[in-house]
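Why does this matter for the project? Reviewers at the last site visit asked to see concrete outputs rather than summary tables. In response, this paragraph embeds two records directly. Each consists of the residue sequence and, immediately after it, the corresponding structure tokens. Nothing has been edited or filtered.
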Amino acid sequence: MKSEVYLQVIKVSENLFNRFGISKTAVDDIAARASVSRATIFNNFGNKEGIIRAVLDENLKSMVHIIEIKAAAKSRFFESLRELIIARLNLINKLKFIVDKEISTELPVISDFRIKLNIVFRKGLVSFFDRGRLRDEEERRLIEGLMIMIGGIEKKISEEGVDFDSDSVSSDIDFYIRSFIGNSSFREVFE
């Protein structure tokens, strides 16, 4: 499948999954909206779960790219870290179909995506810290705290079905990180 067509199928699928849910989106609907044959879909994705996996993998690739960009911006450490966290929350907010309680707990592909996202994101957070300036235990505590905070926001998005407000999330992130700055070794990293 040509790259353009592949990406078109992914874009159409994501839109349909978000709009109607996974269970109410048929492969025929995806094929029709993407202007490809049903056979093309099955030959390239295998089945609906393969389409879901491709949608999630493309979004994970985008997150990896964002992490690489933000991690490279070490001169703007605090802002880059906040932007990275907000980018992750935007991703979860964008993929509304993965928080569908009826489906998301039943599909291993969605559980696998969440695990991969957490691994990639943790690695991204670790790349923010200069190990020579921050003790491993402090780094672990800060990352664990950030992951718990993010998990709480994601839970609220999924349970209440609400879009998150990046301004209030930004305030929460600022408060959380600034609470660590009181420790002198954290202060060196953030200032």
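We now turn to the second protein, recorded in exactly the same manner.
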Amino acid sequence: PAGVPGSAAPAGVPGSAAPAGVPGSAKVPVRGRTGAGRVVGDGTTSASRARSRWHRWRWVLALAGLVGIVAVAAALPEPRTSEVVLAPNNPAARGARAVAQILEHEGVDITYVRTSAEATDAAVAGSTLLITGSYLLGVDQIDALAATDADLVLLNPDPLLLGAVTDAAETSLVPPSTVPERRTAECTDPDAVAAEAISAAGGGYFATSDTATVCFPGADQAAGSAYLVVDGARRVVALGDPTVLTNASLTEEGNAALALRMLGRTSQLTWYVPSPADFGQAAAATGPGLGDLLPPWAGAVGLQLLLAAGVAGLWRGRRLGRLVTEPLPVTVRAAETTRGRG
């Protein structure tokens, strides 16, 4: 009965409670949310769970984002202009877009290629193949280009390329000049006569056969002439100074007349600008690689992303993180801990 010394209140009777401060009493564990959103039961909060999920999934999300960027980049169309020197779509001073547009306006169909395999496939009989440089070409590429049936226009060819396409001329051994000068034709070639004079520097050539004609000699006769024409089964033209075709120099002297006449003799023109990524005819047989399927700027963007990822890794890896507390689910008295340990 209530009030009798030593008696206890029946279990479940409303209002009954354990006396406060009685030894041996313990706090009952409370689970669930309390003030400020803290979860007492497992010691986590909504913010800490969100951080935990972010740490687990951030690399997956980063990889998915990178894949998405690559997919979008691959789907984008190739830019209409470039910064490649002597490219027909380069509007800058060192590009050749001006002469290319004039040729197209005159009805010449231009095929712009960056590999030797593409050049040899497009250079058929009755067309013209322009090779803007030879320093990136290997022996197998030179042999393949020389074996085409198209007329050839070579810009500043080295002795290896010139010797592969004709034995009627040779290059000068005198170092080429670097300062443009006015050069008059001084020959009977119709294209050179129509141009009358050009502004050119660069190397020179000598004719070693009656089938070859050299035009536009420089002040130094030992340096040879800037323009070479070899008539035979096909027409071979060599120009010692490629800047004659550039946007910056096209309007000087008779540069435009010479460029348009030597490139516009046929209705089909293959414009080949050698690329450092071209590894020759054997590599082309394996088909296009991943780099061929991506836009030209994908490499630069990939390097920037790789650098950013490395910097972010160093930044995050050096941090020790802030100190955190780990709330226990229950309050354990010191006396109980002592007795539990014996």
